[in-house]
Predict the structure of Phosphoribosylamine--glycine ligase.
Amino acid sequence: MDILVIGGGGREHAIVWALKKSPKAGRIYCAPGNAGIGQIAECVPIAVNEFDKLTAFAAEKQVGLVVVGPDDPLADGIVDAFEAKEIPVFGPRKNAAEIEGSKTFMKDLLHKYNIPTAAYEKFDSYDAALAYLNTQKAPIVIKADGLAAGKGVTVAHSMEEAHQALQDIMVTKVFGESGAQVVIEQFLEGQEMSILSFVDGEIVHPMPAAQDHKQVFDGDRGPNTGGMGTYSPLPHIDPAIIEDAIENIIKPTAKAMVAEGRPFRGVLFAGLMIQPDGTPTTVEFNARFGDPETQVVLPRLKSDLLEVFLAAVNGTLADVEIEWSDEATVCVVLASEGYPASYPKGLPIEGLQSAGNEGDAIVFHAGTALNAEGQFVTNGGRVLGVVGLGAGIAEARDKAYEQAEQITFKGKQNRTDIATKALV
Ligand code: AMP
Ligand code: GLY
């Protein structure tokens, strides 16, 4: 079966890499892909928002399955566009992707169905939001309603910061229409974890939990990024907490979406906060695989990913058993100088050939391209994700950093403390 994967980051590299292992997989196309994906699949120069071109390409190539990686096209209805052409597609429809695309929708849904999440108020006018904010104390969290490339959330540690964030969103409109509404939310203390699940309606198959590192610098300092590193499993987290989150947050949310007439099919990503008393609560839902969570979760998948996707699309996900390896994985992101603000592109990457020995380390490309001489160059904020595999987190971490050190490019930055929380 030929397959089209949509997207071009580290997440999509990991999806293509996992699909490639399926004996059923034929040609794998990736639109637009990146230089690393191009080594194992056929990259197609179509952007993720060009629905007409993408559906025409899939129809022409008669692909048996389309898999959508990123959030923006999902929120814009890319799955509905493929379904209209009767092309099998794995991902949520527009009305279900709203669980990520609108924070007010997500918060109202959880509130309606009594699913744990931080207390909140929502506003569509600056004056009303400001009046409410003035009754609150820092720390407090200000969120633009819509998608904002991961930048729409400010965890304000002072009231000045909170006022600035509200002004940016609603007056300066730095996120455009995404900031037409705002959520002002109670600050949650604790440790975050991500649980991704394969979902079809009320059928939920959770994947192993992972932890991301959102801030750019060691010790969780500096601005938030798309994610600087991940690891899985979480040996320092009581499995009962993970079970609690699955039973009391993720499954009820899948059920709530069905009850609302918006059945979710795809990967439902729960961003959770484990509060100091050990109770998990919801920070966010995403309607897709996480990046870089996928890079540590899919290498642990023992089952055939293509079979799982097809079961979801064919309505037989309940019959599938999904197996995971006990190995640990750690992903260290190598980013460009300046990221998450502006950064240079086109810088030669050295040492890639010596990296990526499958078995104990895998290098997933996030933002790379080939220059005119055929050399790998940087082409994004997050450039590479180096994944180490091992019997435990310590071993996986050593392998990831060993490989990461061999890869160099001008201005390379990475966190040096990925997964250290799990070592205590
Ligand atoms: P979101 O885009 O909703 O995932 O938010 C981005 C990040 O902001 C989360 O991963 C958390 O680290 C942080 N965050 C969001 N909401 C809260 C909250 N209520 N309390 C504390 N941190 C939060
Ligand atoms: N790593 C967080 C995300 O994919 O949103």
